[in-house]
Amino acid sequence: xxxxIVDDEPLARDRxxxxxxxxxxxxxxxxxxxxxxxxRCVREQLADxxxxxxxxxxxxxxxxxxxxxxxxxxxxxxxxxxHSEHALSxxxxxxxxxxxxxxRRDDLAAALARASRPSRAQxxxxxxxxxxxxxxxxxxRTREGIERVAxxxxxxxxxxxxxxxxxxxxxxxxxxxxxxxLQQQLGSAFMRVHRKALVARxxxxxxxxxxxxxxxxxxxxxxCSIPVSRRRxxxxxxxxxx
Length: 242
Description:
Blueprint: E1 2-6, H1 10-20, E2 27-32, H2 35-45, E3 49-53, H3 61-68, E4 76-81, H4 87-92, E5 97-100, H5 105-115, H6 120-127, E6 137-142, E7 145-150, E8 154-160, E9 163-168, E10 171-175, H7 179-186, E11 190-194, E12 197-200, E13 204-210, E14 214-219, E15 225-227, H8 233-241
Parallel strand pairs: 1-2, 1-3, 3-4, 4-5
Antiparallel strand pairs: 6-7, 8-9, 8-12, 9-10, 11-12, 13-14, 14-15
Helix pairs in contact: 2-3
């Protein structure tokens, strides 16, 4: 995840940068000391998350957030401020998090975890989908009742006999829907790479050829590799090259 840190106080930026460095999977790609520079950095770096000070000279954090919200794929915004009276305005802006200075490590970790889960709008924008035609959740019957997982959190589906496993950011579920039915429901956000596998396009990060196992796909947030059938190989390569 690419992060931009925005604060008019250099010491505050330094502290946040050191804290972010403690969490794997996050990279601070730019820093800014004012709102105009923040907007420029996010656009240039295609940042996923912005840690944004609310109270700054010139454009304040709320104004920056409103401008960034107009991007095709806006970053997740985590507000950081020393002024607790701004909390209501920050929460009303649909931010991914609100942190009060001095920022606590656990609070930052929780906010980053929330920001790492893309909104439905972001998933739709990345996949070029019409949100109205795409379900927001996949539901499964469990011993506790009905559990549902957000489509944006799903890494891949794996079919095995009569059941399909749903592998997502928080674990695994079993459903009875076929891969074909899921592919029709979810559209181009997911790619069929094998007769048993349907993967989220946005999580595909690499392809390698194993001398024994054949083509294997690497997914973000996933330790295992997904087999790719020979007939699907050209399509996967084209996606990665583009």
